[in-house]
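Dear Dr. H.,

I hope your travels went smoothly. While you were away I took the liberty of generating a structure for the chain from your last submission, since the lab meeting agenda had it listed for discussion. I wanted you to have the full record in hand beforehand rather than looking at slides cold. The sequence, exactly as received, is reproduced here:
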Amino acid sequence: MKLPATLTLDQAAALGAALPADGSAWAIDASALREFDTSALALLLQAKRLAQTAGRGFEVSGAPPKLQQLAQLYGVHELLGLA
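The corresponding predicted structure, in token form, is as follows:
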């Protein structure tokens, strides 16, 4: 799944509903993110939870530095593999 350039509360709900429920491995490309808020972290945590429940892998690639900093501020950077 490739995240869009903007991921705020308005977009997060739609993207969360579009997360695959088939239990496939999760590979999320965050490289396009430019404008986001904590909703981006919530979406990533939801995806991680779904992947774990299905016994599948989870990976975030291309996370911009600001997303990494936000994840560190909230203490979820290691959980999301952004450490």
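Two observations you may find useful: The longest strand covers residues 26-29. Strands lie at 6-7, 26-29, 35-36, 58-61.

With kind regards,
E. W.
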